[in-house]
Model the fold of this input.
Amino acid sequence: MSDAAISGRHLGATKRTKAAQGALMKSGIARKVVYGALPWLAIILLWYAVRLSGLVKPTLVPTPWEVMTTWWNLVTEAGFLTDMYMSTQRVVLGVALGILAAVPVGFLLGWYQPVRRFIDPLINFFRALPPIALIPLVIVYFGIGETAKVVILFYASFFAGVIVMYEGIAQISPIYLRVARTLGATDLEIFSKVVIPLAVPHVLTALRVALGVAWATLVASELIAAQQGLGAVIQDASAFFQLDTIYAGIITIGVIALIMDYLLRRASRRLLSWQERING
Amino acid sequence: MNAPRERITFDAVSKEYDVNGGPLKVVDDVSFGVGDGEFVALVGPSGCGKTTMLNMVAGFVAPSSGAVRLDGRPISGPGPERGVMFQEYGVFPWLTVQGNIEFGLKLRANRTDAAERRRISERYLSLMRLTDFRDAYPKTLSGGMRQRVALARAYAVRPEFLLMDEPFGALDAQTRSAMQNLLLEVLQTEGKTVVMITHSVDEALYLASRVVVISARPARIRKIVDVPFSYPRHEELHETPDFAEMRSEIRDLVMQEYAAQEKQARMRLAS
Done:
Protein backbone atom coordinates (compact mmCIF):
# COMPACT_ATOMS: atom_id res chain seq x y z
CA MET A 1 0.00 0.00 0.00
CA SER A 2 1.27 3.47 -0.83
CA ASP A 3 1.96 6.08 1.77
CA ALA A 4 -0.77 8.30 0.37
CA ALA A 5 -3.34 5.55 0.78
CA ILE A 6 -2.26 4.98 4.36
CA SER A 7 -2.42 8.64 5.23
CA GLY A 8 -5.74 8.94 3.39
CA ARG A 9 -7.20 6.15 5.45
CA HIS A 10 -5.75 7.69 8.53
CA LEU A 11 -7.35 11.02 7.67
CA GLY A 12 -10.74 9.36 7.22
CA ALA A 13 -10.40 7.71 10.58
CA THR A 14 -9.51 11.00 12.24
CA LYS A 15 -12.50 12.70 10.63
CA ARG A 16 -14.80 10.01 11.87
CA THR A 17 -13.54 10.22 15.41
CA LYS A 18 -13.80 14.02 15.29
CA ALA A 19 -17.44 13.77 14.26
CA ALA A 20 -18.08 11.21 16.94
CA GLN A 21 -16.38 13.42 19.47
CA GLY A 22 -18.56 16.36 18.40
CA ALA A 23 -21.71 14.32 18.92
CA LEU A 24 -20.40 13.10 22.23
CA MET A 25 -19.65 16.64 23.32
CA LYS A 26 -23.11 17.84 22.30
CA SER A 27 -24.76 15.07 24.28
CA GLY A 28 -22.37 15.93 27.14
CA ILE A 29 -23.56 19.54 27.14
CA ALA A 30 -27.18 18.45 26.98
CA ARG A 31 -26.62 16.15 29.94
CA LYS A 32 -24.93 18.95 31.84
CA VAL A 33 -27.92 21.26 31.27
CA VAL A 34 -30.35 18.58 32.40
CA TYR A 35 -28.34 17.74 35.51
CA GLY A 36 -27.91 21.43 36.25
CA ALA A 37 -31.65 22.11 35.99
CA LEU A 38 -32.78 19.05 37.92
CA PRO A 39 -32.17 20.26 41.50
CA TRP A 40 -33.95 23.56 40.75
CA LEU A 41 -36.89 21.74 39.29
CA ALA A 42 -37.02 19.59 42.40
CA ILE A 43 -37.02 22.53 44.77
CA ILE A 44 -39.77 24.31 42.78
CA LEU A 45 -41.88 21.16 42.94
CA LEU A 46 -41.26 20.90 46.66
CA TRP A 47 -42.29 24.54 47.01
CA TYR A 48 -45.57 23.87 45.17
CA ALA A 49 -46.09 20.76 47.26
CA VAL A 50 -45.79 22.70 50.50
CA ARG A 51 -48.16 25.33 49.23
CA LEU A 52 -50.75 22.85 47.93
CA SER A 53 -50.54 20.47 50.87
CA GLY A 54 -52.51 22.87 53.01
CA LEU A 55 -50.12 22.47 55.94
CA VAL A 56 -49.18 26.14 55.75
CA LYS A 57 -51.54 29.07 55.40
CA PRO A 58 -51.61 30.08 51.70
CA THR A 59 -51.08 33.74 52.63
CA LEU A 60 -47.72 32.80 54.17
CA VAL A 61 -46.35 31.00 51.12
CA PRO A 62 -46.69 32.62 47.70
CA THR A 63 -46.36 30.22 44.78
CA PRO A 64 -43.24 30.29 42.61
CA TRP A 65 -45.37 31.67 39.80
CA GLU A 66 -46.58 34.58 41.97
CA VAL A 67 -43.03 35.32 42.98
CA MET A 68 -41.96 35.34 39.36
CA THR A 69 -44.67 37.74 38.26
CA THR A 70 -43.85 39.97 41.23
CA TRP A 71 -40.21 39.87 40.23
CA TRP A 72 -41.09 40.90 36.69
CA ASN A 73 -43.28 43.76 37.96
CA LEU A 74 -40.49 44.92 40.23
CA VAL A 75 -38.07 44.96 37.34
CA THR A 76 -40.37 46.72 34.89
CA GLU A 77 -42.10 49.15 37.23
CA ALA A 78 -40.26 49.61 40.52
CA GLY A 79 -36.65 50.14 39.48
CA PHE A 80 -35.56 46.78 40.80
CA LEU A 81 -32.61 46.74 38.40
CA THR A 82 -31.20 49.81 40.14
CA ASP A 83 -31.40 47.98 43.45
CA MET A 84 -29.62 44.99 41.98
CA TYR A 85 -27.01 47.25 40.49
CA MET A 86 -26.46 49.14 43.76
CA SER A 87 -26.02 45.96 45.78
CA THR A 88 -23.73 44.33 43.24
CA GLN A 89 -21.65 47.47 42.98
CA ARG A 90 -21.20 47.62 46.76
CA VAL A 91 -20.17 43.98 46.92
CA VAL A 92 -17.73 44.26 44.03
CA LEU A 93 -16.16 47.43 45.41
CA GLY A 94 -15.91 46.11 48.97
CA VAL A 95 -14.48 42.76 47.93
CA ALA A 96 -12.04 44.30 45.46
CA LEU A 97 -10.67 46.70 48.06
CA GLY A 98 -10.66 44.03 50.78
CA ILE A 99 -8.73 41.51 48.69
CA LEU A 100 -6.40 44.19 47.36
CA ALA A 101 -5.36 44.78 50.96
CA ALA A 102 -5.53 41.13 52.02
CA VAL A 103 -3.09 39.91 49.37
CA PRO A 104 0.00 41.87 50.47
CA VAL A 105 -0.83 41.47 54.16
CA GLY A 106 -1.38 37.73 53.65
CA PHE A 107 1.98 37.54 51.87
CA LEU A 108 3.76 39.22 54.77
CA LEU A 109 2.09 36.99 57.33
CA GLY A 110 2.69 33.82 55.37
CA TRP A 111 6.28 34.63 54.58
CA TYR A 112 7.65 35.98 57.83
CA GLN A 113 7.09 33.69 60.82
CA PRO A 114 7.84 36.37 63.46
CA VAL A 115 5.34 38.79 61.92
CA ARG A 116 2.75 36.05 62.01
CA ARG A 117 3.34 35.25 65.65
CA PHE A 118 2.90 38.91 66.51
CA ILE A 119 -0.16 39.65 64.39
CA ASP A 120 -2.00 36.31 64.48
CA PRO A 121 -3.90 36.94 67.74
CA LEU A 122 -5.05 40.34 66.50
CA ILE A 123 -6.24 38.93 63.19
CA ASN A 124 -8.10 36.16 64.96
CA PHE A 125 -9.78 38.65 67.27
CA PHE A 126 -10.99 40.91 64.48
CA ARG A 127 -11.96 37.97 62.33
CA ALA A 128 -14.10 36.56 65.12
CA LEU A 129 -16.13 39.78 65.31
CA PRO A 130 -19.12 39.43 63.01
CA PRO A 131 -19.05 42.42 60.65
CA ILE A 132 -22.75 42.90 61.31
CA ALA A 133 -21.96 43.69 64.94
CA LEU A 134 -19.89 46.62 63.73
CA ILE A 135 -22.68 48.16 61.71
CA PRO A 136 -23.90 50.47 64.52
CA LEU A 137 -20.35 51.72 65.03
CA VAL A 138 -19.83 52.25 61.33
CA ILE A 139 -23.07 54.24 61.14
CA VAL A 140 -21.79 56.52 63.89
CA TYR A 141 -18.48 57.12 62.12
CA PHE A 142 -19.43 57.00 58.45
CA GLY A 143 -23.16 57.71 58.42
CA ILE A 144 -25.54 55.67 56.30
CA GLY A 145 -24.18 56.49 52.84
CA GLU A 146 -22.20 54.41 50.39
CA THR A 147 -18.95 54.83 52.31
CA ALA A 148 -20.38 53.10 55.35
CA LYS A 149 -21.43 50.08 53.31
CA VAL A 150 -18.14 49.77 51.51
CA VAL A 151 -16.28 50.06 54.82
CA ILE A 152 -18.23 47.15 56.30
CA LEU A 153 -17.74 45.05 53.18
CA PHE A 154 -14.06 45.90 53.11
CA TYR A 155 -13.77 44.73 56.69
CA ALA A 156 -15.61 41.49 56.01
CA SER A 157 -13.67 40.67 52.82
CA PHE A 158 -10.31 41.63 54.21
CA PHE A 159 -10.43 39.29 57.18
CA ALA A 160 -11.98 36.46 55.19
CA GLY A 161 -9.32 36.87 52.50
CA VAL A 162 -6.26 37.42 54.64
CA ILE A 163 -6.62 34.07 56.39
CA VAL A 164 -6.88 32.18 53.11
CA MET A 165 -3.89 34.06 51.70
CA TYR A 166 -1.52 33.53 54.56
CA GLU A 167 -2.40 29.89 55.10
CA GLY A 168 -1.78 29.34 51.39
CA ILE A 169 1.52 31.19 51.30
CA ALA A 170 2.76 29.45 54.43
CA GLN A 171 2.12 26.10 52.77
CA ILE A 172 4.25 26.73 49.68
CA SER A 173 6.65 23.81 49.48
CA PRO A 174 10.26 24.92 50.12
CA ILE A 175 11.49 22.52 47.42
CA TYR A 176 10.45 24.96 44.67
CA LEU A 177 12.37 27.77 46.29
CA ARG A 178 15.44 25.55 46.61
CA VAL A 179 15.27 24.44 43.01
CA ALA A 180 14.97 28.04 41.84
CA ARG A 181 17.90 29.04 44.00
CA THR A 182 20.13 26.26 42.66
CA LEU A 183 19.33 27.43 39.13
CA GLY A 184 20.65 30.85 40.10
CA ALA A 185 17.51 32.81 40.99
CA THR A 186 17.80 35.94 43.14
CA ASP A 187 15.34 36.65 45.96
CA LEU A 188 13.37 38.96 43.70
CA GLU A 189 13.25 36.37 40.93
CA ILE A 190 12.13 33.71 43.38
CA PHE A 191 9.32 36.00 44.47
CA SER A 192 8.16 36.98 41.00
CA LYS A 193 8.68 33.65 39.23
CA VAL A 194 7.91 31.09 41.92
CA VAL A 195 5.94 32.58 44.80
CA ILE A 196 3.51 34.62 42.72
CA PRO A 197 2.44 31.77 40.41
CA LEU A 198 1.98 29.56 43.45
CA ALA A 199 -0.07 32.29 45.15
CA VAL A 200 -2.60 32.76 42.32
CA PRO A 201 -4.81 29.83 43.39
CA HIS A 202 -4.98 31.23 46.90
CA VAL A 203 -5.93 34.70 45.65
CA LEU A 204 -8.81 33.14 43.72
CA THR A 205 -9.95 31.12 46.72
CA ALA A 206 -9.72 34.24 48.88
CA LEU A 207 -11.91 36.06 46.36
CA ARG A 208 -14.54 33.33 46.42
CA VAL A 209 -14.64 33.16 50.20
CA ALA A 210 -14.77 36.95 50.46
CA LEU A 211 -17.63 37.15 47.95
CA GLY A 212 -19.71 34.76 50.02
CA VAL A 213 -19.09 36.66 53.23
CA ALA A 214 -19.65 40.00 51.51
CA TRP A 215 -23.12 39.13 50.23
CA ALA A 216 -24.21 38.03 53.68
CA THR A 217 -22.87 41.18 55.24
CA LEU A 218 -24.22 43.50 52.56
CA VAL A 219 -27.79 42.44 52.94
CA ALA A 220 -27.56 42.82 56.70
CA SER A 221 -26.19 46.31 56.36
CA GLU A 222 -28.87 47.27 53.83
CA LEU A 223 -31.56 45.87 56.08
CA ILE A 224 -30.53 48.30 58.77
CA ALA A 225 -29.95 51.45 56.83
CA ALA A 226 -30.28 51.93 53.11
CA GLN A 227 -32.59 53.66 50.63
CA GLN A 228 -31.63 51.37 47.78
CA GLY A 229 -30.34 47.87 47.35
CA LEU A 230 -31.76 44.39 47.62
CA GLY A 231 -31.65 44.42 51.41
CA ALA A 232 -33.64 47.66 51.48
CA VAL A 233 -36.24 46.21 49.10
CA ILE A 234 -36.65 43.18 51.37
CA GLN A 235 -36.87 45.37 54.46
CA ASP A 236 -39.55 47.65 52.92
CA ALA A 237 -41.55 44.66 51.71
CA SER A 238 -41.45 43.16 55.18
CA ALA A 239 -42.96 46.34 56.63
CA PHE A 240 -45.93 45.96 54.24
CA PHE A 241 -46.15 42.16 54.55
CA GLN A 242 -45.37 41.68 50.84
CA LEU A 243 -44.14 38.12 51.06
CA ASP A 244 -43.79 37.66 47.31
CA THR A 245 -41.47 40.65 47.12
CA ILE A 246 -39.38 39.29 49.98
CA TYR A 247 -39.05 35.98 48.16
CA ALA A 248 -38.21 37.72 44.89
CA GLY A 249 -35.50 39.73 46.66
CA ILE A 250 -33.97 36.72 48.39
CA ILE A 251 -33.91 34.64 45.22
CA THR A 252 -32.33 37.50 43.28
CA ILE A 253 -29.53 37.75 45.84
CA GLY A 254 -28.91 34.03 45.56
CA VAL A 255 -28.85 34.11 41.78
CA ILE A 256 -26.44 37.06 41.58
CA ALA A 257 -24.11 35.46 44.14
CA LEU A 258 -24.26 32.18 42.21
CA ILE A 259 -23.42 33.90 38.91
CA MET A 260 -20.45 35.69 40.45
CA ASP A 261 -19.15 32.47 41.97
CA TYR A 262 -19.60 30.69 38.66
CA LEU A 263 -17.64 33.36 36.80
CA LEU A 264 -14.84 33.14 39.35
CA ARG A 265 -14.74 29.37 39.12
CA ARG A 266 -14.47 29.59 35.35
CA ALA A 267 -11.66 32.11 35.64
CA SER A 268 -9.84 29.82 38.09
CA ARG A 269 -10.17 26.87 35.79
CA ARG A 270 -8.61 28.86 32.97
CA LEU A 271 -5.84 30.31 35.08
CA LEU A 272 -5.12 27.11 36.96
CA SER A 273 -5.32 24.45 34.30
CA TRP A 274 -1.95 23.25 35.60
CA GLN A 275 -3.33 22.33 39.00
CA GLU A 276 -3.90 18.78 40.10
CA ARG A 277 -7.42 18.41 41.38
CA ILE A 278 -9.37 15.54 42.82
CA ASN A 279 -12.24 16.22 40.41
CA GLY A 280 -10.87 17.16 37.00
CA MET B 1 47.45 8.10 34.80
CA ASN B 2 47.36 11.49 36.48
CA ALA B 3 44.80 12.02 39.21
CA PRO B 4 42.21 14.50 37.97
CA ARG B 5 42.20 18.02 39.40
CA GLU B 6 40.25 18.14 42.65
CA ARG B 7 37.03 20.18 42.34
CA ILE B 8 35.12 19.53 45.55
CA THR B 9 36.96 19.20 48.85
CA PHE B 10 35.63 18.12 52.22
CA ASP B 11 38.25 19.28 54.72
CA ALA B 12 37.66 17.94 58.26
CA VAL B 13 33.97 18.80 57.99
CA SER B 14 31.68 18.45 61.01
CA LYS B 15 28.10 19.57 61.47
CA GLU B 16 26.07 19.83 64.65
CA TYR B 17 22.43 20.76 65.04
CA ASP B 18 20.69 21.93 68.20
CA VAL B 19 17.94 19.45 68.87
CA ASN B 20 15.78 19.80 71.98
CA GLY B 21 18.43 21.89 73.67
CA GLY B 22 21.24 19.38 73.16
CA PRO B 23 23.74 19.29 70.31
CA LEU B 24 23.26 16.53 67.76
CA LYS B 25 26.27 15.66 65.66
CA VAL B 26 25.26 14.62 62.15
CA VAL B 27 28.58 14.82 60.31
CA ASP B 28 31.83 14.00 62.08
CA ASP B 29 35.23 14.96 60.71
CA VAL B 30 34.73 14.01 57.09
CA SER B 31 37.55 14.55 54.61
CA PHE B 32 37.57 13.52 50.98
CA GLY B 33 37.79 15.04 47.53
CA VAL B 34 35.92 14.75 44.25
CA GLY B 35 38.05 15.05 41.12
CA ASP B 36 37.10 16.69 37.84
CA GLY B 37 34.69 14.53 35.87
CA GLU B 38 34.39 11.99 38.67
CA PHE B 39 31.12 10.35 39.62
CA VAL B 40 31.04 9.84 43.38
CA ALA B 41 28.19 7.94 45.02
CA LEU B 42 27.52 8.24 48.74
CA VAL B 43 25.86 5.19 50.24
CA GLY B 44 24.79 4.69 53.84
CA PRO B 45 21.77 4.20 56.09
CA SER B 46 18.89 6.68 55.86
CA GLY B 47 19.17 9.53 58.31
CA CYS B 48 22.94 9.12 58.60
CA GLY B 49 23.83 12.62 57.43
CA LYS B 50 24.43 12.04 53.70
CA THR B 51 21.88 14.63 52.71
CA THR B 52 23.50 17.17 55.03
CA MET B 53 26.80 16.51 53.26
CA LEU B 54 25.23 17.06 49.86
CA ASN B 55 23.42 20.18 51.08
CA MET B 56 26.77 21.59 52.15
CA VAL B 57 28.08 21.20 48.61
CA ALA B 58 24.84 22.66 47.24
CA GLY B 59 25.27 25.62 49.58
CA PHE B 60 22.10 25.20 51.65
CA VAL B 61 23.93 24.23 54.84
CA ALA B 62 27.20 25.55 56.28
CA PRO B 63 29.55 23.26 58.24
CA SER B 64 29.98 23.81 61.99
CA SER B 65 33.71 23.25 61.66
CA GLY B 66 36.05 22.47 58.80
CA ALA B 67 35.30 23.61 55.27
CA VAL B 68 33.69 22.45 52.07
CA ARG B 69 35.53 23.96 49.12
CA LEU B 70 34.78 24.34 45.46
CA ASP B 71 37.96 24.70 43.42
CA GLY B 72 39.70 25.73 46.62
CA ARG B 73 37.17 28.40 47.68
CA PRO B 74 34.78 27.84 50.59
CA ILE B 75 31.16 27.47 49.46
CA SER B 76 28.97 30.32 50.66
CA GLY B 77 25.64 29.57 48.99
CA PRO B 78 23.88 27.91 46.07
CA GLY B 79 24.99 28.73 42.54
CA PRO B 80 24.02 27.82 38.99
CA GLU B 81 27.34 26.03 38.39
CA ARG B 82 26.03 23.35 40.75
CA GLY B 83 22.85 21.75 39.46
CA VAL B 84 20.81 19.92 42.07
CA MET B 85 18.30 17.13 41.61
CA PHE B 86 16.05 16.31 44.50
CA GLN B 87 14.20 13.12 45.23
CA GLU B 88 10.87 15.01 45.27
CA TYR B 89 11.49 16.17 41.67
CA GLY B 90 10.62 19.81 42.37
CA VAL B 91 9.27 20.19 38.85
CA PHE B 92 7.31 23.47 38.74
CA PRO B 93 3.65 22.47 38.33
CA TRP B 94 2.54 25.77 36.81
CA LEU B 95 5.00 25.54 33.90
CA THR B 96 4.93 23.20 30.92
CA VAL B 97 7.77 20.76 30.34
CA GLN B 98 9.48 23.26 28.06
CA GLY B 99 8.77 26.10 30.48
CA ASN B 100 10.46 24.10 33.23
CA ILE B 101 13.54 23.43 31.12
CA GLU B 102 13.81 27.09 30.12
CA PHE B 103 13.18 28.42 33.64
CA GLY B 104 16.85 28.71 34.54
CA LEU B 105 17.75 30.26 31.20
CA LYS B 106 15.39 33.17 31.83
CA LEU B 107 17.07 34.10 35.12
CA ARG B 108 19.46 37.01 35.23
CA ALA B 109 22.29 34.70 36.37
CA ASN B 110 22.26 32.79 33.05
CA ARG B 111 20.32 35.10 30.76
CA THR B 112 20.10 33.64 27.27
CA ASP B 113 18.43 35.18 24.23
CA ALA B 114 15.24 33.58 22.96
CA ALA B 115 16.76 31.77 20.00
CA GLU B 116 19.54 30.24 22.07
CA ARG B 117 17.06 29.33 24.78
CA ARG B 118 14.92 27.52 22.22
CA ARG B 119 17.94 25.70 20.86
CA ILE B 120 19.03 24.54 24.31
CA SER B 121 15.56 23.40 25.36
CA GLU B 122 15.06 21.56 22.07
CA ARG B 123 18.32 19.77 22.63
CA TYR B 124 17.39 18.54 26.09
CA LEU B 125 13.81 17.79 25.13
CA SER B 126 15.16 15.35 22.56
CA LEU B 127 18.02 14.06 24.72
CA MET B 128 15.58 13.27 27.56
CA ARG B 129 12.96 11.97 25.09
CA LEU B 130 10.44 14.58 26.10
CA THR B 131 9.86 16.25 22.72
CA ASP B 132 6.28 14.96 22.46
CA PHE B 133 5.48 16.30 25.90
CA ARG B 134 6.91 19.80 25.55
CA ASP B 135 3.54 21.50 26.13
CA ALA B 136 2.32 19.13 28.83
CA TYR B 137 1.91 20.21 32.43
CA PRO B 138 3.70 18.07 35.02
CA LYS B 139 0.42 16.80 36.48
CA THR B 140 -0.01 14.62 33.40
CA LEU B 141 3.49 13.11 33.59
CA SER B 142 4.70 9.92 35.26
CA GLY B 143 7.38 9.95 37.96
CA GLY B 144 10.11 8.95 35.53
CA MET B 145 9.14 11.70 33.10
CA ARG B 146 9.08 14.30 35.86
CA GLN B 147 12.55 13.26 36.90
CA ARG B 148 13.68 13.60 33.29
CA VAL B 149 12.26 17.13 33.25
CA ALA B 150 14.20 17.88 36.45
CA LEU B 151 17.38 16.48 34.90
CA ALA B 152 16.87 18.48 31.69
CA ARG B 153 16.18 21.63 33.69
CA ALA B 154 19.36 21.13 35.71
CA TYR B 155 21.39 20.46 32.55
CA ALA B 156 19.98 23.44 30.64
CA VAL B 157 21.91 26.04 32.67
CA ARG B 158 25.17 24.20 31.88
CA PRO B 159 26.31 23.38 35.41
CA GLU B 160 29.74 21.90 35.93
CA PHE B 161 28.49 19.83 38.83
CA LEU B 162 25.47 17.64 39.28
CA LEU B 163 24.37 16.98 42.85
CA MET B 164 21.71 14.34 43.20
CA ASP B 165 19.88 13.33 46.35
CA GLU B 166 18.25 9.94 45.84
CA PRO B 167 17.06 11.07 42.41
CA PHE B 168 15.54 7.74 41.41
CA GLY B 169 14.43 6.62 44.87
CA ALA B 170 10.73 7.07 44.19
CA LEU B 171 10.68 5.29 40.83
CA ASP B 172 9.67 1.71 40.10
CA ALA B 173 12.44 -0.76 39.25
CA GLN B 174 12.07 -0.63 35.44
CA THR B 175 11.85 3.15 35.26
CA ARG B 176 14.75 3.42 37.63
CA SER B 177 16.94 1.22 35.49
CA ALA B 178 15.95 3.17 32.36
CA MET B 179 16.80 6.44 34.13
CA GLN B 180 20.20 5.09 35.17
CA ASN B 181 21.02 4.24 31.57
CA LEU B 182 19.76 7.61 30.38
CA LEU B 183 21.93 9.36 32.95
CA LEU B 184 25.00 7.38 31.84
CA GLU B 185 24.22 8.22 28.23
CA VAL B 186 23.79 11.93 28.94
CA LEU B 187 26.97 12.03 30.99
CA GLN B 188 28.75 10.35 28.11
CA THR B 189 27.77 13.21 25.77
CA GLU B 190 28.13 15.99 28.34
CA GLY B 191 30.41 15.09 31.20
CA LYS B 192 29.86 16.58 34.66
CA THR B 193 31.38 16.14 38.04
CA VAL B 194 28.72 14.23 39.92
CA VAL B 195 27.92 13.56 43.56
CA MET B 196 24.96 11.28 44.10
CA ILE B 197 23.30 9.96 47.21
CA THR B 198 21.67 6.57 46.92
CA HIS B 199 20.42 3.74 49.10
CA SER B 200 21.10 1.23 46.39
CA VAL B 201 24.57 -0.32 46.34
CA ASP B 202 23.77 -1.71 42.93
CA GLU B 203 22.96 1.75 41.57
CA ALA B 204 26.10 3.23 43.14
CA LEU B 205 28.34 0.59 41.58
CA TYR B 206 26.66 0.77 38.20
CA LEU B 207 26.90 4.55 37.87
CA ALA B 208 29.80 5.79 39.96
CA SER B 209 33.55 5.84 39.50
CA ARG B 210 33.95 5.90 43.26
CA VAL B 211 31.69 4.76 46.06
CA VAL B 212 31.95 6.36 49.50
CA VAL B 213 30.41 4.24 52.25
CA ILE B 214 29.08 6.44 55.06
CA SER B 215 28.68 5.22 58.63
CA ALA B 216 25.60 5.40 60.85
CA ARG B 217 25.01 8.85 62.35
CA PRO B 218 27.13 10.89 62.81
CA ALA B 219 28.32 10.45 59.24
CA ARG B 220 31.93 9.33 59.00
CA ILE B 221 33.69 7.81 56.06
CA ARG B 222 33.63 4.08 56.46
CA LYS B 223 35.36 3.19 53.24
CA ILE B 224 36.11 4.62 49.82
CA VAL B 225 35.92 2.11 47.01
CA ASP B 226 37.33 2.78 43.52
CA VAL B 227 35.07 1.25 40.92
CA PRO B 228 37.27 -0.33 38.23
CA PHE B 229 34.66 -0.70 35.45
CA SER B 230 35.26 1.50 32.42
CA TYR B 231 32.67 3.74 30.77
CA PRO B 232 30.49 3.48 28.73
CA ARG B 233 28.74 0.94 30.90
CA HIS B 234 25.87 -1.28 29.89
CA GLU B 235 23.21 -3.42 31.57
CA GLU B 236 25.32 -6.60 31.15
CA LEU B 237 27.74 -5.21 33.74
CA HIS B 238 25.27 -6.26 36.42
CA GLU B 239 25.76 -9.90 35.42
CA THR B 240 29.55 -10.02 35.66
CA PRO B 241 31.18 -11.86 38.60
CA ASP B 242 33.40 -8.85 39.44
CA PHE B 243 30.35 -6.67 39.80
CA ALA B 244 28.57 -9.23 41.96
CA GLU B 245 31.58 -9.65 44.22
CA MET B 246 32.04 -5.89 44.76
CA ARG B 247 28.34 -5.48 45.31
CA SER B 248 28.18 -8.06 48.07
CA GLU B 249 31.33 -6.67 49.68
CA ILE B 250 29.96 -3.12 49.83
CA ARG B 251 26.52 -4.34 50.77
CA ASP B 252 27.97 -6.10 53.84
CA LEU B 253 29.56 -2.85 54.96
CA VAL B 254 26.36 -0.90 54.42
CA MET B 255 24.28 -3.51 56.25
CA GLN B 256 26.55 -3.23 59.28
CA GLU B 257 25.94 0.50 59.33
CA TYR B 258 22.20 -0.01 58.96
CA ALA B 259 22.31 -2.29 62.00
CA ALA B 260 24.30 0.29 63.97
CA GLN B 261 21.82 3.01 63.00
CA GLU B 262 18.92 0.87 64.15
CA LYS B 263 20.61 0.18 67.47
CA GLN B 264 21.03 3.93 67.95
CA ALA B 265 17.35 4.47 67.30
CA ARG B 266 16.38 1.77 69.79
CA MET B 267 18.61 3.29 72.46
CA ARG B 268 17.13 6.74 71.85
CA LEU B 269 13.68 5.26 72.28
CA ALA B 270 14.68 3.55 75.54
CA SER B 271 16.23 6.65 77.13
Remarks:
- Chain B touches chain A through 29 residues (CB under 8 Å).
